[in-house]
Write a structure and sequence with these properties.
The protein has 404 residues and is an alpha/beta fold. It folds into 2 domains: 268 residues, 3-Layer(aba) Sandwich (Rossmann fold); 79 residues, formyl-coa transferase, domain 3, CATH 3.30.1540. Helices cover 36% and strands 13% of the residues. The mean pLDDT is 95.
């Protein structure tokens, strides 16, 4: 298996941008990794442990590491902290706080997910940071917007899934009485994408005007808006014209369809595609003439019955047979991958999606590549995920040289 070498210099569109990163866990760390992939220099500031912790980003300690590997390089941390340098500072100490303020003076972006009152107590609120670097882009990842009654409350993925309506979707779909979380840290990652977008927009504004600004990225508002893009549905109108939640999506029959040897994702969409699928299914003279399925609007109203019918026929052929039949007709279809199947998926293999590296202390590890292609300014990987405080002396020495 070929191991990739680290790039020697940034080629992404954010080359030359320095981000002072006081985020952690997944929300902020996911966002700043994307900025790092795009060429930004990311200085990850971490705090020493207390009486009951080992310090640094808590994701360092989640999951098992290979035998002999450092414990501070846990698997989730490894997945979202490349292209960063780690600086270990106890911000309760005056010297450490002075070092942070010296780093602010050299930075383009100040990103934090610490609660804002805590930043105020440290003298790292927006006004204080702006006094040091007037054009700073100051991005605060919060649980809840500062104008509302939840402002300042702690927030994690589970809480935001609960508060945003996400936890109300699965039971609406299958009728089970209990509410459940979507089994991925969706709120954190969606909010991280919003944070990345926020940084880029604010940098663009600064480039055009020379003006920095304070940007607040509240998880609840981001994830609620994300959820309601389709699930506001009939409640878009006043008075409502229908239910909450998009009927096609909140459908117990919307799932990978069983085949004779596996499962497929299958979604005829247009009238023509459904007509052709009905013909292949042997329903050309029956279902195709059913007024419930005659056009898009009718199918949307009867989508539960329609999807229930589909699986009665998909089990009669193998996955490969369905793909061979449907792809030439441009009917959307794909083999369903289990997580175990992803590394061997022919498309992901062809695009080099899984990249293999050799960490000097953790050994061999896998990363998923930055998914977006830039023809002129490609993203790249220049640094392994750092050990806790690995670059403290190096970064502080650079600050001192810059002050002279």
């Amino acid at each position: 298996m070929t191991k990739r070498q680290l790039a020697t210099e940034a080629t992404g569109p954010l080359k030359g941008i320095k981000v002072l990163d006081l985020t952690s866990v997944i929300f902020g760390a996911y966002a700043t990794q994307m900025l790092g992939d795009l060429g930004a220099e990311i200085i990850k500031v971490e705090s020493p442990g207390g009486r009951r912790g080992d310090g640094g980003d808590i994701m360092r300690w989640a999951g098992e590491v290979p035998e002999g590997a450092p414990r501070d390089l846990g698997p989730i941390y490894m997945s979202i902290n490349r292209n960063k340098r780690s600086v270990l500072l106890d911000l309760r100490e005056p010297e450490a706080l002075a070092a942070i303020k010296a780093l602010v003076a050299e930075s383009d972006v100040f990103a934090a997910s610490v609660r804002y009152n805590g930043l105020k107590r440290l003298g790292l609120d927006y006004e204080s940071v702006k006094a040091i670097k007037p054009d700073i882009v100051y991005v605060h990842g919060a649980g809840y917007g500062s104008d509302g009654p939840y402002a300042g409350l702690p927030a994690y993925d589970d809480l935001i899934q609960a508060g945003s309506g996400l936890a109300d979707l699965l039971n609406r779909t299958d009728g089970a009485p209990e509410h459940r979380y979507v089994p991925t840290v969706l709120a954190d990652k969606v909010s991280g994408l919003f944070m990345t977008q926020a940084v880029l927009a604010a940098l663009f504004h600064r480039q055009r005007t020379g003006e920095g600004q304070f940007v607040e990225v509240p998880m609840l508002e981001c994830v609620t808006g994300f959820t309601l893009a389709e699930h506001l549905f009939g409640h878009v109108y006043e008075p409502p014209t229908g239910q909450w939640s998009y009927t096609r999506v909140a459908n117990p029959h919307r799932k990978p369809f069983k085949t004779a040897d596996g499962n497929i994702g299958l979604l005829p969409y247009t009238d023509k595609q459904w007509d052709e699928f009905f013909e292949i299914a042997g329903w050309g003279e029956t279902v195709a003439q059913d007024p419930r399925f005659g056009d898009y609007a009718s199918r949307a109203r009867h989508v539960h019955e329609l999807y229930a019918l589909v699986e009665t026929v998909t089990q009669g052929r193998t996955t490969d047979e369905w793909i061979a039949l449907l792809q030439p007709l441009h009917i959307p279809v794909v083999k369903m991958n289990r997580l175990d199947d992803l590394p061997a998926d022919p498309h992901l293999s062809a695009v080099g999606f899984f990249e293999h590296y050799e960490h000097p202390e953790a050994g061999e590890y896998v990363q998923t590549k930055h998914p977006i292609r830039y023809s002129a300014t490609p993203a790249n990987v220049r640094r392994h995920p750092p050990r806790l405080g690995e670059h403290t002396e190096e970064v502080l020495a650079e600050v001192k040289r810059g002050e002279k």
